Amino acid sequence: MVNAIEVDEMRKAYPSRRGAPTVALDGVDLVVPEGGVFGILGPNGSGKTTLIRCLLGLTRPTAGKAWMLGSEVPGDLGAIIQRIGAVVEVPAMFPTFTGRRNLELLAGYYGIAPRKVDETLGMVGLRSRADDLVRAYSFGMLQRLGLAATLLKDPSLFLLDEPANGLDPGGIREIRQLLRRLGAEGRTVFVSSHILAEVQQICDRVAILSRGRLVATGPVHELLGRTAGHFLRVDEPARGLETVTAAGFRAVPVDAGIRALVSSEETKAVVRALTENGIYPTEIRPDEPTLEDVFLELTHEQEPEP
Amino acid sequence: MRRLIGVEVRRLASRPLSRGLLVAAAVVALGAAIVVAVLSHPATQAAVERSELEYERTVEQCIRSGFRPPFALYPKDARAEFCEEAVPKADFTFQLTLLDDVLEGVDVPGTSFPLTMAAGVLGASFLGAEFTRRTMTVTLTWIPDRVRVIVSKVVSAGVAVFVMALVLQLFVGLVLAAAAGLRGTTGGMSAEVIADTFGAGARVAAVASLAAMAGASLAVIAGSTAGALGIGLLYALVETLIKGLEDVAWLRWLLGENAVVFVVGGGERGAALGRSVLDSTVILVVSTAALFGAAVALFSRRDLA
Question: What is the 3-state secondary structure (H, E, C) of B252-286?
């Protein structure tokens, strides 16, 4: 089976006038299988958008190779672009044209029938505002219009950069349902986001980027399993974290306490280490991790030493 | 490529700037026709000829008078040119045969200069907006071949402006023909004059088209409309300074001067510069092509935001 996306040792460095180049991607290896929703997570500046730009040929990588739908990109992008729908950052549309006119012009590139424009506007809930000028659109409406533009081509691979940005809760739910439906239809949806709860709800697999490096990738449930642990409520979380870490256990700070990434058996040793240092936990319970915990743990590990 | 150009032409025609400029130009043309109609009134062919004879006699007297004109554009013809412009035409009739001059706009306020300037701005804005609005990024997610994309956009600017310029001049011709027919004279409109007039209109449209492509190319090079207009203004300043030198060896290479030679079909200006219509055409086309080539080369390598 051909993977939807393959990235091999991709590197992108931007020249800087003040010293060393800025490295946006640092040897990223990534495989996105066909079908389903694949999320790429990372804090701002981690390289998510740069990766999408490199895949679409908008930015030339400094080194490395990439393939989409079996074709090397950006060289052979022309052969597969009709099967790819992409939105990079904020959807860019002509503000002095209506939403419909913007889509009609894009549809004209491939001779797509006008009824398809109407259909996609309906799919993203924009039909009633289709004849308004885009400059009157809210940010959320622009996101919907961008998504409608990708749907025009009826693609098998979507590259969406933060598609839920700016949407209200109702809009987020609609887009979530739409993306899940597209993934369930056998299409591949590659979506970048920093809204971890969203990714956890819609993605089958995720990859986590930090400082241009891929720090983890895999099915969501597997990544969540990596950080199963126990919550310990303590009065001085910072000192508690220091103590647990000094005792040789992995732990991350959480609200009003610490999360020790240990099994039930190891919890006794963690509590002993704390009490020996005068820190008495007032609550200890097994804690179901969220993707946010995984994300914070992994990106925390990547932070440079002070 | 044809489909791409079709989309881009439709996009350019839908832009408020294009429509605004077209409407403004049409209003000005209509206004000019009304003014012409108000200031003119019908006259017999004999009266028109008497008026022309009177004008020519006054110009002759002016030339023979021996005074020195206050400036000299081209030393050889300075006094004749000055007198022709300084002596008022005691013409009460708008003659349709003047349309050629109106379109060329070289010796009388006409369409060629404003059309060329507007075309340059329109071309620069058409491509510049693509970068500032980031819509070029969207286009490339549909058509990743950058050379095809940029060629289609720049060529579309040229094609659309050529058609718009022709339509606009046809409109100017029609409203002035109406004014001449109702309040002036259509006398002297031979087949030759009509052909000359159409030729002048087509040449003006061609220069406007080249200006649009040059403006669009500059916008690609600069990455914005403002950058393109800045470069254009800088060039205009340099050309004005060079004109001040009044040195034919320099003047004959200026784009503005060559555009005039091309639009008027050679004429005295061409003879003064030692440029034929073909020479000027080659200079204008090669200059635009060089800008276009630079734009394509730069755009092919650039990382897009």
Answer: CCCHHHHHHHHHHCCHHHHHHHCCCHHHHHHHHHH
Q: Give the gap in angstroms from C-alpha B137 to the nearest C-alpha of chain A.
A: 7
Within A125-254, residue ranges assigned H as helices are 139-152, 169-184, 196-202, 220-226, 237-246
Q: Where are the beta strands (DSSP E) in chain A?
A: 5-14, 22-32, 36-41, 63-68, 71-73, 84-87, 157-161, 188-193, 205-210, 213-219, 229-233, 251-254, 257-260, 283-287
- Interface list for A 109-148 with B (CB within 8 A): 109-111
B132 and B261 share a domain?
Answer: yes
How many domains are contained in chain B? 2
The position carrying tokens 């404003």 is: B114
CB of A108 closer than 8 Å to CB of B9: no
Domain range for residue B63?
44-90
Q: Given CB atoms, is A17 within the 8 Å cutoff of chain B?
A: no
Q: Of B75, B90, B105, which residue sits at a domain end?
A: B90
Q: How many CB atoms lie within 10 A of CB B236?
A: 14
From first to last of its 306 residues, chain A has per-residue pLDDT tens of 678 999 999 999 888 877 788 888 888 899 999 989 999 988 788 888 999 999 999 999 999 999 999 899 888 888 899 999 998 888 888 888 999 999 999 998 888 888 899 999 988 888 889 899 999 888 888 888 998 999 999 899 999 988 887 778 887 888 888 888 888 888 999 999 877 777 878 888 889 888 888 888 888 777 766 666 888 898 888 899 999 999 988 888 888 888 888 877 788 898 999 999 999 999 888 876 666 667 776 666 555 444
Query: Are B23 and B128 in the same domain?
Result: yes
| Residue B117 and residue B61 in one domain | no
**Same domain as B168, residue B253:** yes
Q: Model-level pTM?
A: 0.76
Residue A95 forms contact with B (CB below 8 Å): yes
Residues B207 and B283 in one domain: yes
Q: Which residues pair with A160 in a beta bridge?
A: A87, A191
Instruction: Check whether residue B136 and residue B277 sit in a common domain.
Output: yes
Pick from A158, A166, A232: nearest CA to A194: A166
Do the Cβ atoms of A92 and B142 come within 8 Å? no
Could A95 and B133 be called an inter-chain contact, meaning their C-beta atoms sit closer than 8 Å?
Answer: yes
Say if the Cβ atoms of A81 and B144 lie within 8 Å. Answer: yes
* Strands lying side by side in the sheet with A257-260: A251-254, A257-260, A229-233, A283-287
Q: Are residues B155 and B274 in the same domain?
A: yes
Name the minimum distance, in Å, from the CA of B152 to any CA of chain A. 11
Structure tokens at A142: 């622009």
Contacts of A58 in chain B (CB under 8 A): 137, 140-141, 303-304
| Residues B128, B269 within the same domain | yes
- What distance in Å separates the CA atoms of residue B74 and residue B47, rounded to the nearest whole number? 34
Count other Cβ atoms within 10 Å, centred on residue A169.
7
Contact B141 A56 (CB under 8 A): yes
